[in-house]
Amino acid sequence: MPRGLFITLEGLDGSGKTTQIKRLAAWLEKHGLHAAVTRQPGGTATGDRIREILLDSRSTGLAPMAEMALMFADRAQTIAQVIQPALDAGKIVLCDRFTDSTEAYQGGGRELGSEMVLALHRLICGDLQPDLTLLLLPGFEASLARARRRNGHVEAETGKDEGRFEAEEDAFYRRVWQKYREIAAREPDRVVLIEGDLSIDDVHEQIVEAVSERLVLTEAQA
Q1: Would you say 190 and 131 are in contact if contact means Cβ atoms under 8 Å apart?
Q2: CA atoms of 156 and 147, how far apart (whole Å)
Q3: How far apart are CA 34 and CA 209, in angstroms?
Q4: What is the reported pTM?
């Protein structure tokens, strides 16, 4: 059985990833293609517990290296429990964040550098790479403002505090933003950059175009 297709969505918090991954899953379903949808951190029972530690504002004083280690612990569990079994079964996997997020947030934002992140990815994740990454980069200020508003809504609706990263200074997010752009420039065959303050429909159209092209290529190689 041919390997499935691994698609990741990346971007700053507030970039619209959650909305777009739902719309993409619905579009695939409409065309007879069921997708396994997961997220990071989270996506498994163990991962959800790790997510609580990572995103809760009460997790003060968490060392950058500890933060990165927890990210990879979550990722290893998700790969073993969700991603790899689905790919082995020939399914499409949609994942909200993957190692690009760690490179951007911990490598860039925390200034740990890319080399360490990529080395850990090879060691812990078996160097599993997405077939396609959709990187959403709307305007920086608008994206960050939406992220901070979103966390307030999440806390009001669910009682969960997931605002630890949103509390960071703008300079942190500038480094994350720049690192994402570096990743896109470094890996243009994998990363499709969708930037600017576009409408939800416009972003969806670009995503569908990119995914359609990759599906055609995958079918041709099968």
Answers
A1: yes
A2: 14
A3: 18
A4: 0.92
Alpha carbons 179 and 114: distance in angstroms, whole number: 9
Residue partners of 162: CB distance under 8 A and separation at least 6: 51, 55, 56, 151, 154, 155
Alpha carbon distance 39, 19 (integer Å) = 13
Element (H, E) at 94: strand 92-96
Show the 3-state SS of 1-29: CCCCEEEEEEECCCCCHHHHHHHHHHHHH
CA distance 40 to 70: 11
Count of domains observed in the chain: 1
List the domain range (segments joined by +) for residue 53. Answer: 5-221
Among all chains, which residue has been given the structure tokens 């790919």? 87
Tracing tokens 């029972």 back to the chain, one arrives at: 45
We report the CATH number of the domain holding residue 14 as: 3.40.50.300
Nearest partner of 55 among 39, 37, 36, judged by Cα: 39
Rounded distance between C-alpha atoms, residue 5 and residue 88, angstroms: 10
Q: Read off the DSSP letter of residue 106.
A: I
Give Rg (Cα) of the chain.
17
Query: Going residue by residue through the chain (222 aa), what tens digit of pLDDT does each one get?
Result: 678 999 999 999 888 999 999 999 999 999 999 999 999 999 999 999 999 999 988 888 899 999 999 999 999 999 999 999 999 999 999 999 999 999 999 999 999 999 999 999 999 999 999 999 999 998 888 877 777 776 555 555 655 667 788 778 889 999 999 999 999 999 999 999 999 889 999 999 999 999 999 987 666 555
